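Chapter summary example.
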Amino acid sequence: MDRRSPRPRQPVDDALVTAVDPFDGGHEDVLSYLHGVAVANQPGDVETGPVMVPVAFAARVSDKDNQDPTLSIPRQLARCREALPPYCVIVAFFWDVESGRTNLELRGHSDAHEMFNVPVPRDGGVTDLLEEARHPNRRFVAVVCESVDRLARVTYFGTKIEYELEQSGVALLAADEGITADALPSASGVMARKRATPILTRRVKQAIAEWYVLDMLEKAWGGLMEHTEQGFNIGKPPYGYQVVVEKHPVPAKAALGKVKRRLVRDPLRGPVVTRIYTWRVSEQLSYDEIADRLNLDPDQYPPPEPILGRGRRAVGAWTKGSVRDVLCNPKYTGYMVYNRRKNPRRDRGVAGKVNAPSEWIWSSKPTHEPLTTKTQFQAGTPIGKSKKGSRTSDQPNNHPATTRTYRLRSHVICELCGRRLYGKTRRVSSGYSYYACEAVPAHHAGKDWFATHPKSLWVREDKLLELVRRFFSRRIFGPEREALLVASRAEEPVVEDGTAARATALRSKIRDLERQQANVVKELREYRPTGDEDIDQQWRGQLRDSFAEIAAQRKSLEAQLSGLTTRPEAPTLGDPRLLDRLPIIETDLGRLPEDVERELFDGFQLQVRYHQPTRRVTLRVTIDGEAIPRLTATSRTIMSPTDAHATPTNTERPPTAKAVGGPRVFSLAVSAPGANNICDTSPAARRVISLGRPSAGRVRGAVPPPPHGGGTAWAPVRGQAVLLGAVG
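The structure predicted for these 728 residues follows.
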């Protein structure tokens, strides 16, 4: 940006400049120099005579798109010249084309003024004005503007500019306030004494100016919320949708070509979005894996086409970012959503960001055809967090020191901190492979769990694999799986969440308050005056205050009771018939190749949650109705002739859960008893203790709820706790 530096204009009389050097020192020389500058820059319609007060002109236009600086700046200058006394001459011109709500540190850095041919000279912006005001050889002793809100729309910024000018001995004048001789500094630069009433008027006007901006912003925000409620889209339509253009309801805006847009399903790209969500939720695929699948058939899955410009270009293929944009856009649920992102305003120092879901504005009802469900959208969101930093392939990573892989990589989770454990092999003494979790003070000292988390905890891989394979052999592919489920469901205890007890207590308190209100009313009716008006009035006032306080308490309790009684019912348990769609297999899972076994773990969304204080391992799998074909294919791979130990005994496929009206997702978790120690987590010894056989008894501790939420039910079964829950 080429900003003009403040410089004096050439006076008419050359002899005036050569007579004295203004920078040679001396207060009288400076005043003589300013006098000459003022004479040289006074307008032609002012009669020649002694000029006593040189003044600087300050102005601002807030918007280069909706306002015309070529008209606004000259108009503000004319208003200021009309308000100034005839012995005041404008000798410097400072004006900006920028928002009045911009921080002062960022003011004057805009180059928007270069886009216009404004017929007013410019010596800089408000930053240059303040800089020259602090200089002892400044060209002016006062600053004039049309109104104080032209300097800033924020009261703090406006008063700060005024304060800095006054500290430098420069008065701030406003044309709409009236400019009189007693408001101007003297010829020697002495500031005029403030008057209380003009200052009060100025502060009120500044407050009104700030209120006006905030009021307009609130009304505009309300209009955008209603625009969203009515189902109109803002911005580019998401992939999978097309737009239907409607005529703008305001005739004046319609005449300018403005329209409103609604979303309709794209018959070619809409099914692609549905398929992406299915892959994400059912198969837990990463962004890269989904992009690779889509790129295998560009005709069936056409890639998105971005709006060109600002560094964007069409690559002609699906990328990780384009898949993420689809999976993170809530508009695919059929609801119109606004305020997902905050656009950057570099001129105001405002950075762009992705707003939290709690700040999103949702329409109260669906406004267009959905391409996925809310359940799928919410279920697909946490997958990225759980898989962040983990490779989906069973191949080793690219690090040159890598010599092996870990079969349970990304499936083992620490119950204390919720993070995944990473694989580690000890080559000294035992030579076992472990999964470890370490708390690093530099990164985790501020976490809630840091104080109770061991410095380092380890768990042996072979012991975990033994549990996992036994779990799949018995409860997923074993012949006793149905009996285990029936037994656990028959012994499920009633889960009491405290809602009924809370509601009963609230009703009891409400009845007590009703009795108190009745007593107050009865006492007020039966009250006999004492004859002293002050005492009687005070007594009645206390009764009225007591009644109002009781009524407020009763209203609050009734609102709480209403919130409890209107809560949605807890989701029902999952349909175990999904489990019947899988074949019964008798095989040694330990003989499976690593890629097949990892495919098995991924398909069932296996979670191995390790609780170090109780040495408890919780195994959880989820059977998704939409993932049944994939799980069946994996089962057939296990039963392939290459595995001589695999003996299928049930390969029939009963009707799907959807066909019989049950939930499409079934979750099952098993927790090994706390008496089974897996390893010694002492950092010093790390002594390995063998895992014993599960013994009878209840499980110590609690097992976390199933993924994505859902109702739960507990029952002790042969020393294990079975958790059944409906998800989705």
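To summarize the output: The chain has four domains: 14-215, 241-387, 412-494+573-726, 499-565.
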